[in-house]
Design brief:
6 strands, Ubiquitin-like (UB roll), single chain
Length: 131
Amino acid sequence: MPLGSGGAGERPAKLFLFAAASGGGGIVGRLATLFVSADRGVDLGAVGRALGLDPSTVRLNGHFLSRGPDLVSSVTWGSLLSFFASRGFPSGRSDHDAVVVQGKSAATQGLQFLIWKMGITYLQEESQVGK
């Protein structure tokens, strides 16, 4: 994927992503595209949302990237994709060369929170009934 330097007026490049099987019931076999700029940090929140995965569990081609509280890494897209290309990993140039993304399904995470929240609400309501 030929990403430029990200200079003024440069259009973002299209990156292909593929959700692979992972240990948390993640979505399998889903293909998505994301527009990225070479000089921008890797936005793992955007990657997770594009594939329906919990952004805090996202791994790209099996690699975990450190991320800030905003889910953006200090590693740029340009340097990450160059690293992948130099090591023979998929680098997102096409749907046949899509970056493999692993992570837990966001729906599963949301459902677990909802069940927990509903349990708390139920316990609070039940404790009020006896008064």
